[in-house]
Structure formats: C-alpha cells, structure tokens
C-alpha cells in the first residue's frame, strides 16, 4: 500500500485561504458529504474564539516533495482542537477532538458523519506511482495511515491521551480498529494494540433510497400504510378546513430566505425541545451565528453543496419548515420547526416530510438522510438503517483503567 506523508500543522501557521483552496480541491475528489464541505468547516472555524491549540492533519502523496505537491496529490484532511479536562477529580486528560472543540456551546452545531476528508479511490492521483499495486489505494487505507501516524509518530500528538470523534459512522471505526491492531497494514501492531478503542452513545441512523423505483412508486404506502393514511388524512383535513388551494409547499434555496425561516419560525422548535436533555440550538448564540454563516457562505459556494429548506403554508401562513443540506448525492434532514396543532389527527410534520422527499426525488438525489437519532417517523419513512456513535481512541493509562473499573462496578451495583 502507498504510505502517504502525514503532517500535523498548527492552524495558526496555515494560511486560511490556502487551506480553503486545498480543502475544496480535495472535497471535489471525495465522497462529498456536506458536513465535510468547506461551507461547514469554514463556518465552524469562523466561530472559534482562537486558533491556538487547533491543528490541521494533512495527508499527501509522498511521491512528491512536500514543498511541491499539487492539489491532486492531497489525500486527506482533518482539523483537531486540543483541550485539557479533569474527570472525577483524579482523571486528567489531554484530548484532541476531530472537527469539534470539546466546548458544549461551540459543539452544539452538531456535525454528523464526522471523519477525515478523504480522497475517493478513483480520485487519487497515481500518475507518479510506479508500483501498480499502489494504484488501488482506498479511502480506508488513507484513513488508517493518518490514524497510525497520529498515534505513533507525530511529535504534536505524543502527549495526547484521548482522540475523540463524535457522531461518526461506526462501520469505519470498527474497520480502523481491525486494521490498526491486526498488523495487516502496519509494523507497529504492538504500539497500536496498547490503545483502547471505545464507542459510546450509539445511535441509529435512517435513510431512504430515492432510487428504488419499486419502493418510491407508491411511497410511503410501500413502507407503512398507517403513515400513508396519516399523511393522506392530514392533507384532506387541511384542505377541508381552509379550502382546496389553501395548502402550499415551497422549496427554499435562496440563502437569505432560509435565514428568514430560521430566524422567524424557530420558536416552535425551541418550545418542543425545552425541558429536555437536548434544548434547542436556537437558544445558543453560537448555533445561530454558525447557521447564519452557512447560509451566507452558500451564496458563493458550489451549488452541489448547499443548505436548503422546505416549507408548508396554509392560506399564506407558514405552518412549518424543514432545514437541511444538499450534497452530491443526498439531502441531509437537519431539523424541523412545526407549529403545534390541537387536532392530533393533523400531522403537518409527516405531510411536510413526504413532500420534501418527493421534491428530493425530483432533484435526482439518491438518498433522503434522516441522520442520527431515534424517532418513530424516521423509521416509518426509511428503508436503510445505519449506526453512529461517539468514538474514542484512548492511551493506556492507569487512571483510565481505574475509571473504567469504577464505572463497571457502579453499573453492577445499580443492577443489583
């Protein structure tokens, strides 16, 4: 396998315009998930209070000198924020968070599909690689090489105790763990085997395959007859109460209009999530500022990766909206804000979801992605299940071992 050259560079030493150019170039050769687009990453960097203790990890085709690499030689990018924490009074840890800060307020923007930005296999520049077996370099191999370097050979990371990747797909982490400790991709198996590879806060993810014509022909009846009946009944009752042409559905793509929806109709979202463990992000100034930036940056960004909203109105009055992100293949449903209705037979949220799904199908997208989190409507409107989790790669330390032992003991006593 080709071993990319991995560098860790303080963000304060990396010109931001250069990083933006390189990131966009690599993104165009990647799987293209919105959460790893420069719109998301650049907007996130804009709300950070400082670039101190922020590091760029870069993978480059090592057949070129580092001073003369071309954009096509870029293989991987990631940005880590360093923080120091103390848990339970006795556990001290220096943590590196991928595309997050470790600060709850700043991290409430809720990145998903968290990972390195990686070149797809077919997009890797192999023109200067003489060994033909290296031409089959995969995204997983690039990812493994980057983590291997971070865990074993980078001066900046030698004192890092925990690497944390929140809301990531579990499938690549499980494969990474296997690659790192099996010895199949590295001669440093003993060193890598001393790390603990932990998963927590597992959550299901849901997607709908919009290209499944048999499924979509009579959707959602083909998945859930009860859901179909709820949607049909809601549409009929709204027309019955307000007139045949009273219900309108709008696709909102203009960034300024999306911002108006987020600003003017967020109260329903705030009220729905108050007094819960996850209050609405609209109460968080950093959350609101971030999404304003995402909308502003979309005006000069690639049309293939952009925020988009869907709204439903009755007699010209907005009754709810969906906000999410469109990328090369998917619409990622991020949040909705729906006006409450005293009639429990009127399911405006379900009706709006079904309309948005049909709109995305007409855009020739492949998937309608409900992202991570359990919800009955997600399972009723989807046919693909995925898995997300918070991932931690933890150095071998006595305090960590003791922490895990005490946690297991506590769980045992609670069960007893």
In short:
The chain has 416 residues and is of the alpha+beta class. It has 14 helices and 13 strands.
Provide tags for this entry:
alpha+beta; 13-stranded mixed sheet; 13 strands; globular; 416 residues; single chain
Beta-strand level of the residues, as a percent range? 25-35%
Intertermini distance = 51 Å
Going by helix content, strand content and strand pairing, the class is alpha+beta
Unreliable stretches = 123-134
Q: Rg, please?
A: 23 Å
Q: What's the SSE pattern? A: EHHEEEHEHEHHEHHEHHHEEEHEHEH
Number of strands: 13
Kindly state the percentage of residues in helix: 25-40%
Q: What would the principal axes of the Cα set say about the shape?
A: globular
What kind of sheet is the major sheet? 13 strands, mixed
Overall pLDDT: 90
Number of helices: 14
Question: How are the secondary structure elements laid out?
Answer:
Blueprint: E1 5-10, H1 16-27, H2 38-47, E2 54-60, E3 74-87, E4 91-98, H3 104-107, E5 117-118, H4 139-152, E6 162-169, H5 170-182, H6 189-193, E7 196-209, H7 213-216, H8 225-242, E8 247-252, H9 255-264, H10 267-273, H11 285-298, E9 306-314, E10 317-326, E11 330-338, H12 348-362, E12 367-372, H13 376-380, E13 384-394, H14 398-415
Parallel strand pairs: 4-6, 11-12
Antiparallel strand pairs: 1-2, 2-3, 3-4, 3-5, 6-13, 7-12, 7-13, 8-9, 9-10, 10-11
Helix pairs in contact: 2-11, 4-5, 8-12, 9-11
